[in-house]
């Protein structure tokens, strides 16, 4: 027994040398009060995400994956359990966690540059510093020509790229993304996924990415956490060991098919179950 | 007809529209179908207007009327924006002020003329108060709605970027509400002219509407219509001028 404990500790220590836990979601339950009574959106959800990891939360619509993300962001308070970032408990939204929403939610009265420099200037950077940060990011997302443009003049894909740059401007340790490409057409989507990966390779931020699209999850992630519906639970923690850098040809990789089948089977069963639950109600 | 021809025809008709209106008016007035004293032709109106300007009285009337509208509008609009932001942003203010404003708002401002005369006599204060009263509720309501309708997504984005809650108002809420506020202000421009009419009719010593009333008492119908033309032109210029300003105010559109 003692030997076992020592061995375990040694294992933990060696893991810690390799990776630091950036996000710790511990036994989080989230309950919503609705006119029809209480709804459990997440039921004792636990997972850890290592610094620099790219993790996708995958599940059928309505499974509570966005709710879990909003809890990490600090927009929702858990009913039970805790969320901590780099060991510090989350008590509300903050600039250590950048977020990209389903809609770009750019400030329409600010130019592309001012949207991106808003965060740094709120954190006390001088106008000059904030502008320099913004211009670097604008170059990284390839929109230098549009630095002075207003959001409504940009396409949906461009707006979402600005939203990503804005979320990165405070150099957050964590980037939270809530189906950010869901509203884009299929072609733009693929381009956005590829540019997100190259951006991630440059900044190295920990990313939690919510999606219901299996291909998107496998293409992007180091790990895919598959969630079940009603109430939301983590069903499977799937490691995606596909080589990086990844291109759209990753679908031809032999293990891709096996990973996709595993996801498909789980999601299908979950969607069916959720559908039947709704029918019973 | 091709699309281009239809468009040219419509342009031609729209150019002719107003001259034809004046021509028809002139002919009807001089045809003895109507009493020319009561329904003077545009030529007589024009002469009366030239006379009005030459006598120097027009400049005084115009200045006095513009002064009442501008001061009343500025006071009403500023108070409306301030209270709209307060009630839109802070539930406590809304719970207290909104019911009061909602019972006062439906009373037509013109109905306050008698009590305003009792309070302020025929002074300028009373006239400015009436314009203020008309402008305030419109601007308050649109500002309140504008502040309330701000997309929660924008607020969340601002919080996520580290915007302190105490700066949310000046950084996000005011700009988000601006398109609504501007619509309210523009509506209030025409309301300020309605209330000006009521204020000057109730008793004044100068002003465009005052001049219309005096001319009516002297049966100077040309001057009466000249006054109407001047008032229409003034209101039109104010509205267009304001539309130009609003485009600058909501610069990102």
Describe what you observe in this structure.
- The complex is a heterodimer of chains A (281) and B (253).
- Chain A has 281 residues and is α/β, with parallel strands linked by helices.
- Chain A has a domain at 2-88 and 213-280: Rossmann fold (3-Layer(aba) Sandwich), CATH 3.40.50.
- Helix content of chain A is 41%, strand content 25%.
- Chain A has eight helices and ten strands.
- Chain A has helices spanning 2-18, 65-73, 112-122, 127-140, 156-168, 186-203, 214-220, 254-280, and strands at residues 21-34, 37-50, 54-58, 80-85, 88-89, 97-100, 174-178, 206-211, 223-228, 233-239.
- In chain A, strands 6-7-8-3-9-10 form a six-stranded mixed sheet, with helices on both faces. In chain A, strands 2-1-4-5 form a four-stranded antiparallel sheet, covered by helices on one side.
- In chain A, a hairpin with a 2-residue loop joins strand 1 (21-34) and strand 2.
- In chain A, helix 3 (112-122) packs across helix 4 (127-140) and helix 4 (127-140) packs across helix 5.
- Chain A is globular, with a radius of gyration of 20 Å.
- Chain A starts with a helix and ends with a helix.
- Residues 1-17 of chain A have low confidence and may be disordered.
- With 253 residues, chain B is mostly helical.
- Chain B has two domains: 1-34; 36-249, Orthogonal Bundle (MetI-like fold).
- Helix content of chain B is 80%, strand content 0%.
- Chain B contains ten helices and no strands.
- Chain B has helices at 3-30, 42-54, 57-89, 91-104, 113-120, 124-148, 152-160, 168-201, 208-217, 221-249.
- Chain B is flat, with a radius of gyration of 23 Å.
- The mean pLDDT of chain B is 93.
- Chain A binds chain B through residues 73, 75, 92-95, 97-99, 101, 103, 105-110, 118-119, 122-123, 150, 152, 166-167, 169-170, and chain B through 151, 153-154, 156-164, 167, 171-172, 175-176, 178, 251-253.
